[in-house]
Amino acid sequence: MSSPSFSRRGPAQVRLPAVQVGRRAATQLVGNHTQSNVNNPSENLEVWRAGQVRALCVFDKSASSTRPSHGHAILERHPDLQDEGVDVQYLMLRAMFLPGKVTPDQTALYVDLFRKLTQTPEYKDYMEKQALKPVFLTGNDMLKFWKKTTRSTGTS
Question: By the 8 A CB rule, do 64 and 82 touch?
């Protein structure tokens, strides 16, 4: 269950109840059990392609530079919330975490593995087809991103 947290400035009233996420949230929307969802585009692609849902907006200000070109336009022609006067950004993080007491060599093994994975044509194709944002951060860059994100959302 998930209930995204974000800072809001302006006139928008947004209520995000804790519901199942991903494909379950898409199913709830199609079944009229919810009125909307905040999903990754990839989690709604199949029901969007079937004409059962429609995208209203994107939460990521930089989405205009990452819109897919693989024959689906789930993000195309949709404003981000800031374009509509609502100062909200929401990023859904997908990350690989290791236990706190792994060795530097163990960490390096996984960082190298995932770096290599993100450079494969299959991974790049998957990211584009699923309308996902390809960002690879490690070490201090990841910590800076994490701290910036948690400060702006009020979460920790």
Answer: no
The answer to whether residues 20 and 34 touch, using CB atoms and an 8 Å cutoff, is no
pTM (predicted TM-score): 0.64
Residues 139 and 110 sit within 8 Å (Cβ to Cβ): no
Q: Nearest-CA neighbor of 61 among 36, 78, 44?
A: 78
Task: Give the tens place of pLDDT for each residue, 2-12.
Answer: 334 444 455 55
Task: Give the DSSP H or E segment for 152.
Answer: helix 139-153
Residue 96 to residues 31, 93, 107, 151, Cα–Cα distance (Å): 32, 10, 11, 21
Radius of gyration of the chain (CA): 17
Residue 19 phi/psi, 5-degree rounding, is -135, 170
